Amino acid sequence: MATLTRIMRGACACALAGAAFAASAHASAQASAHASAHASAQETAQAGTDAAVNPTVARQQAQEIAKGDPPRWYRDDPAQQTLRKELGAALQEAQNACRKAPAAERKSCMQEARATWQRETAQLGKPMPRQ
Fold first, then answer.
1. Among the four residues 33, 34, 81, 85, which has the most C-beta atoms within 10 Å?
2. Taking Cα atoms as reference points, which of 32, 50, 30, 49 lies closest to residue 40?
3. What average pLDDT does the chain have?
4. Using an 8 Å Cβ cutoff, are 109 and 101 in contact?
5. Any residues with CB less than 8 A from the CB of 84 and at least 6 apart, and which?
6. Predicted confidence (pLDDT) at residue 72 exceeds the cutoff of 60
7. For residue 76, what is the DSSP state?
8. Cα Rg, the chain, nearest whole Å
9. Domain spans of the chain?
10. Contact yes or no for 117/91 (Cβ under 8 A)
11. How far apart are CA 90 and CA 9, in angstroms?
C-alpha cells in the first residue's frame, strides 16, 4: 500500500505540474498572438525572471525549492479514508483520460479504469460505493 500511495501521490503531482505548465504555455501563446512584436519581446524577457514577484515571496520560494519535496509526500498514510480518497482521485483521472481517447477505445478504457479501481478497493478490505 505504501508503494501505491507514493505512486498515486507522484502521479497527482505530475498531473498538477503538467496542467500548470500547459495553462502557462497556453496563456503565453495567447499573449504573444495578441501583442505587438515589441510587447511580446518584453513579456518574454520578463517571463523568465522574478521581476513581477515580491522579493520576500521570491526568497521564500527559493528556500522551499532548495529544500526539495516536503517529507509529508513520502510518509505512509495508511488511513482508510485517505486511501479511498486517493483511489477515487486516480479513478477520476483515468476516466478523464479515457474521455479524451478516440470513441472506439473509450468504452474499453473506461471498463479497464473501473476494473482497476474495483481491484484496488477490494485490497483495502471492503468495496467502496459505486460512483
1. 85
2. 32
3. 74
4. yes
5. 121, 124, 128
6. yes
7. -
8. 20
9. 1-42, 79-125
10. yes
11. 9
Which residues neighbour 9 within 8 Å (Cβ) at sequence distance 6 or greater?
73, 86
Q: Closest Cα partner for 5 from 90, 103, 83?
A: 83
Which cell numbers hold the place of 69?
519535496
Tell me phi and psi for residue 113, to 5 degrees: -60, -45
Quick check: 88 and 129 in contact, CB under 8 A?
no
* Percent of the chain scoring above 90 in pLDDT: 37
Q: What are the tens digits of pLDDT across the range 5-29?
A: 566 566 555 555 555 555 554 445 4
CA distance 73 to 119: 24
Q: What is the pTM of this model?
A: 0.41
Q: Which residue do the cell numbers 509529508 mark?
A: 72
Strand boundaries in the chain, DSSP class E: none
How do residues 24-67 score in pLDDT, each as one tens digit? 544 454 444 444 444 444 454 455 666 788 999 999 999 999 99
